[in-house]
Fold these 2 entries.
Entry 1:
Amino acid sequence: MNIYSIEEPSFLKNLNDKELEELASDIREFLIESCAITGGHIGANLGVVELTIALHKYFDSPTDKLIFDVGHQAYIHKILTGRIDKFPTLRQYEGLCGFPKMRESEHDVWEAGHSSTSLSAAMGFAKARDIKSENSHVVPIIGDGALTGGMALEALNHIGSDKTNMTIILNDNEMSIAPNVGALHNMLGRMRTNTQYNKLKHGAEGFIEKLPQVGTTLRDLADRVKDSTKYMFVDGVFFEELGIKYIGPVDGHSFEDLGAAIKTSKEYDGPVIIHVITKKGKGYHPAEHDKLGVWHGLGPYKMETGEVLGKKETESWSGFMSNTVLEHAKKDERIVALTPAMPVGSKLTKFQNELPERFFDVGIAEQHALTMAGGLAAAGLKPYLAIYSTFLQRGYDQLLHDVDRQNLDVLIGIDRSGLVGADGETHQGVFDISFITPLPNITLMMPRDEIEAAAMIDLSFNTKGPMAIRYPRGNVLGLDPSEERAPIKYGSWEVLEEGNDIVLISYGPTLQMLTEAATTLKDLGINAKVINARFIKPLDFECLDQLGANSMPIFVIEEAMLTGGLGSMIASYFTDNKYRNTIQRLGIDNEYIEHGDVDLLLNDIGISVENIVNKSRRIVEDSHEKNAN
């Protein structure tokens, strides 16, 4: 089978197990070669090659709905639905999305970039099917790590209660991004090893099917005997107690076992869960033996050795933040750190190794992470919660209700703030300013470099109430620590360049563009004042009053949503105080930003030195014309 000729998955119906194995080998080889060039979520996809092929063989997509949780394991699904020719553009600007995308194919029925969504979506699809009297299968595919998400447990509760027909595929590879943690993970571990239970259970079922029809009493007794075996071998049999039929564990790399399990699931009336055991990174040694989650998602690599290409010498922002917090924690026993399943991504493994009793990985459970941080703070500790901007969205009620409302001393490191690039619209960290700034008690900051970040961390651990520091994906500037500046005054902005024609305001990495633009503007005879608005909340009202007094035009540039952003807050303040400054804003205007190189995305938005210069010139010209009249 030439995988480059695949247009849709119906051809799988005619293939035997040997031919399926050959196809799996070809796809696995293609993935390793292709992702070596483009990067991507290689580990997760290598682990589900056989599983995805089996799903398309025994179900009929798109009539049957395959719903991928998170979605980063859908590369094989994309190959089998005719998109292999687009893989050279994977996760690149205007190229193939790394997650399911409805506009790409009718086979992509659900888009996801966050975990634990598939079961709730599946319940919606299943109920819609039943209301419309359709005859189709609904098949959510969820990883073992995603079951720690409260949303998944809420959905399981509803599915089991309503006895809704669906086939749940539990892809158990013992990993999410980092190794999974918690009681649910331990329970699945016991299930993996209890082959005696499954043999005895299925044997009992076979015996029952052969019983003569001599009334219900004997059969009911046999059913009770069969069910009692569950408790002899598996603690609780969690899923069956919820009302969901359990099949497994099943070898996720055996077409024979997968086929038998899927066929059996179709015979049941009601919800069924097939517990599939897979190996993340299967078939590629560096990914298969990854115990830290390094091969979850990465850039290009050398196919022969697995060496990741393009590594920078300077420290990552995540590493700098976490290691600086660790240095504080060594001096202050009240400081603890926690993260929702991101010790690797947020670079907290050093903290975890050096202070294990003061580190908590709570699994994929953002809501729990925030309220737990609040509890730690209420008990007198100083928690540092490292969480990606895109995942902080998932715990907004807890941030508001449990942390901010009680004015608790929680420091939140908002990782991946701003555009993140390849993972696209589900992961761009551009909404946090808009949803955080309305909260009454929280302080929100963003440093322009690591020296300023260190000063913000120090300030946070010595200031009452919730504090949040945004920082971008990528690496710090590599500044010399001896260049350390004076401690930051709470709520203060910083003037980086003086000027009397226009005021350019921003925060974080974007300030580099502003200083470059100011240099170009000076050559054009325009003197721009550049302000580092490092405190996004509270605003520096003293500075704003000074700006309002001289009526210079103001240009606010931010790598975030315009609605509810810094520029909106400045404009509201000037209106409320009857200042007459002209205010222009540049940022993301009411749209989702898709995947691609960050510089290209910024250019699309208009955040570039050239565009800032051109817009600044027009603003100054308009201001001079207005004053002349």
Entry 2:
Amino acid sequence: MAGMVRGAPSRADLQVIRELAARELVVTASQLESWRRAGLLPRHRRRGLGRGRGTVVDAVDPVVVESAAALARHLRQGRDRRLAVLEWFAEAGMPPVRPGAVPVPEPPIGAVREALLWALEGSFSQRLWDTAHSAVGAGEAGLDELYRVAGLMLAARPYRGAMANPALMRAALEAGEDLPEETGTGADFARVVHLVAAIGAGAEEIGADALAEAFAVWDMFGLTVEDWKQMLGAAERGEGPPVDWDLLRQHADVLGPVRRAGDEELVRARAVLLGLRGFYGMYVLHGLVMPDTPAQAALRQRIDEWGMFPFLSHAFSFSPSPVQFAESLSVCLEPLFDGLYEALMEQLARDPDIFRLPGDETGPVGFGERWMRALREVSAEGSAGHSRTDDPDKRS
């Protein structure tokens, strides 16, 4: 093999290089061998020719070609391979883009786990957790340092906020009014640092009111700041169920779940993540005047029953970076998200006609046409409204 690396590439590797070149993916024989040494690319399957006659590659395995294609798509000069592995893992969980297309093969699961842990160790979530953990036993000075460092982290990574309620967005668009603002941005989200501090230093150091503001940022289960204040205040006074801060510490640890998860659990968490992102996206598109159907309404109702749309909006991104993908996947190892995914999949199986309007025999085609018309109408109404506002003779 060493001789092959120093000399001309094998016929099998030349075939791989040609097939990828036809897709405008440029790779070299040395790159292919480098990926093999890193454990990312399978070797060609060889057949023995008999005693003393060596071996031969009968045909290039499509898995080798598609694995090399995935690496070529996601790797570029100077980029860490682990980022490419995470993108490859996410891509392998998606259905083929074209009917009959060869599915993207799975990357080696050991390389996936290594990439996940590496990404999470340097993630925003883990750095915040490490800072909170270091505050334990450090008294007021430790808390001051925690708030200082957390503030710098939040300033360096501005939070976009949760998506505004799609029903309100839809109503505003259809009425030609200004869109509602996102929720939980800026200073509001900075209140989450109170929760981080409580996990690190103890709830008694923070107080029920500050913690109530932190919990309310997530807007889960429809609970307001006042609702959280009542519950946490009662727990603080011993008049209600105590808060299990050890359980919260476990949930705050993004590395532990990945370390403990088996190979199948990681693949399952990816299915949950990609599935929930799809359901969340459909909910968001309702706000962009996508034609409504009974199947869509039933899915939104399920999400609302779980009180999870605001949290999905905080947790998921439509175009996540590899590190954000790793953070979201760690979250999806939790039973709560697995349960929500199962509930939504069961609902979808009961009524799969999400893109078929009742009584419309044109099916998804008619659905798409109606949506395009709705968007044009909204755009025209919005333009007309702005024109009226900008006309000084027509202002009130």
